[in-house]
Description:
- This protein has 339 residues and is mostly helical.
- The protein has helices at residues 2-6, 13-42, 48-63, 65-76, 81-117, 124-164, 166-182, 187-194, 198-218, 220-234, 240-245, 251-267, 275-278, 286-295, 299-326.
- It is globular and about 70 Å long.
Amino acid sequence: MSYFRKKGVVISPKRYFIDALGAMALGLFASLLIGTIFGTISDYVTYKPAQEFLLRMKEYSVAAQGPAMAIAIGSALGAEGLVLFSLCAVGAAANALGGPLGTYVTVVVAAEVGKLVYKSTKIDIIITPTVTIGVGVAIALMIGPWIARIMTELGNLIMEFTDLQPLFMGALVSVVVGICLTLPISSAAICAALGLTGIAGGAATAGCCAQMVGFAVMSFAANKWGGVIAQGLGTSMLQMGNIVRKPIIWIPPILTSAITGALSAFVFKMENPVAIASGMGTCGLVGPIGVISAKGITPNEVFVMVLICFLLPALLTWSIAKPFKKLGWIKESDLKLDI
Length: 339
């Protein structure tokens, strides 16, 4: 084990399930998601050279999602030099064979094995890439297709159930994904792995927005506008320490996400066609942008997006939290952030 520690291989749930998953989501954001945004913008650009340039940006960004995820995960695990560079090939293979989750599993193993041999021989320039890529491609070939199939079937099942039972499933998906967003795990990575799009993706977006906007509004007295920006455009994860100290503060945003998720799926049939955007909420306005990209920027789509992603989360969370505060169950100090 001392050799493992010397090589920076530390077996830890936090490193693998929080740091690596969170980094994977950033890799997807910097490739697939930003490429999708470029494509959406191109639909509304009339100047043909600019439109073609945006479409090229989309094409190359989307094509880089495998290597981008791999570099992000490897960096989070402390891979460097030849190990990190070799992960580009691993990511390309793993994403093609196993999708986002297959890439995550494959890259974690390949990065850790690569670190064990890195700078251990005089022909490191040959050994490290060979071992890292060899292990990665072998794992991708063995488990990638199975992981991709399982996650695709699971994602399809969730989306099918949401289409059939939008009231119940809309609320359930919204609550679960919203909770994942606030927990120190990556809701975006989970949605991407499941391929959660369509009405289920819209419900997931509603849940994430309920958490972010809800906490921003509920804690306004304690955190002012800095808190609104940090939580509403950043992440509700900032409240995790306060939630651990006083879990009751989580009830208003969770109840709000159940309501907005049900309304999103059952009443408005709001969709999000971009899986990773489904788990981003109002972070950088990625979730709302994804919703608009589903059916275009029409007055009706904009109204539904603003209602589900901003207005209802703010009004409902404030209304639900008010009696909690009046009864003294939630104090303003319980929501204070160190920002």
